[in-house]
Amino acid sequence: MKLILLGAPGAGKGTQAEILSKKLGIPTISTGNILREAIKNQTETGLKAKAFMDNGQLVPDDVIIGIVRERLSQPDCAKGYILDGMPRTIPQAAALEESGVHFDAVVSIEILDEVIESRMTGRRVCGSCGASYHITANPPKAEGVCDVCGGALTIRKDDNPETVKNRLKVFHAETEPLKDFYAKLGILKLVEGNQPIEDATRDILKALGM
Ligand code: ADP
Ligand code: AMP
After folding, report:
1. Residue 146 marked ligand-binding
2. Which of 9, 10, 62, 202 has the greatest number of CB atoms lying within 10 Å of its CB?
3. Catalytic pick from 2, 119, 124, 156?
4. DSSP-assigned letters across all residues of 6-73
């Protein structure tokens, strides 16, 4: 199963990707998590990406395409994978097509901009494994501690309301056109994102015919 999760920042891609990854036994590839890890480790990629991410802009396509090509060539991707946060532009989607990757489905998690702000102000992410929580909608078992790996939870620098506004603008301009791109390929599925987490998971699995 090769799956793409599309959706605005805060739509619930990371949350659903984690759940689906466990259910389907395939890895999740989150370009956001890979980039945040690169920034933490001060790699060349991290240094290139940081200013774009802090401003809510997209990291250049060539950087992302390089990261994803490398990651998809690893053995754990052989049985399939879930892409979370990639592609975000038409050139990124075209690069995936050109490398001969064909997806079973592209699930767009639909949500209105108005809902996003409260999601982002309540988001906490694990600084070690990248797992995503929400202080009220999806709290960890112990405050400030990741259920998955015991890492410390942090607030993402780009989750402040001003940067979120930018990210939404960028989403509508650059990423939303991908819905048309994948609709034309006949693999686009729309799922309501403004409902409890487990209901969204149920609808995604239904859309995948599971
Ligand atoms: P994305 O990866 O699309 O940016 P996340 O999965 O990190 O989004 O979710 C954004 C925030 O919203 C997180 O705090 C997450 O816990 C919370 N969240 C995710 N799905 C839902 C939902 N269905 N209802 C309420 N809150 C949600
Ligand atoms: P995310 O964790 O998916 O919300 O991504 C956080 C930030 O990382 C985005 O706002 C972008 O700056 C950058 N990023 C992640 N994935 C991509 C991508 N596919 N293309 C360009 N920039 C990306």
Report:
1. yes
2. 10
3. 156
4. EESTTSSHHHHHHHHHHHHT--EEEHHHHHHHHHHTT-HHHHHHHHHHHTTPPPPHHHHHHHHHHHHT
Assess whether the C-beta atom of 130 lies below 6 angstroms from ligand 1.
no
Q: Considering the chain, what is the average pLDDT of its residues?
A: 96
Contact indicator for 153, 144 with CB cutoff of 8 Å: yes
Binding site annotation covers 137? no
Does 58 contact ligand 2 (Cβ within 6 A)?
yes
pLDDT digits (tens, 9 = 90+) for 166-210: 999 999 999 999 999 999 999 999 999 999 999 999 999 999 999
User: What tens digit of pLDDT does each residue of 34-78 get?
Assistant: 999 999 999 999 999 999 999 999 999 999 999 999 999 999 999
